[in-house]
Amino acid sequence: MTTRRTLVRSALASFAALGFVRNTRAAPGGGFELTLDDAEWRRRLTPEQYDVLRHEGTERAFTSPLLHEKRRGLFACAGCGRDLFSSETKFDSGTGWPSFWAPLDKAVGTEQDRSFGMVRTAVHCARCGGHLGHVFDDGPKPTGLRHCMNGVALTFKPTSA
Predict the structure, then answer these.
(1) What is the residue-averaged pLDDT of the chain?
(2) What is the pTM of this model?
(3) Which residue in the list 77, 80, 125, 148 is annotated as catalytic?
(4) Is the pLDDT of residue 21 over 80?
């Protein structure tokens, strides 16, 4: 059954994915193990990584090579290299972004995001504060969570079997 809430969420997600909507708030400040000035972040990151990690942008859906990554390994923050998610918790959510049902212990932080007229839970790297994506309560067992991450905010480190 389609509800008004579902339609609004779908429309906002579509606009964000197409680049029509963008949150320009800076990433959370202070209190992180790694803090750099804006010029250094710009030097370290690609323009797309900078937009997502430092200004809470959103990459277009279905564009990340990490969406189809199936090897064993760890997904790390593209900003600072901190390991964030194990491939063992990755699943295909059908949303167009890499999704995980759980992060590694103490790897991410969350905060309330009230942008675009809705309340969501934003996820950031616990080490550098870089914006990664959002977490929703419609994921699979055992947690029931879907950490929907921007692939451009992540790197992948394969491990041996």
Answers:
(1) 86
(2) 0.80
(3) 148
(4) no
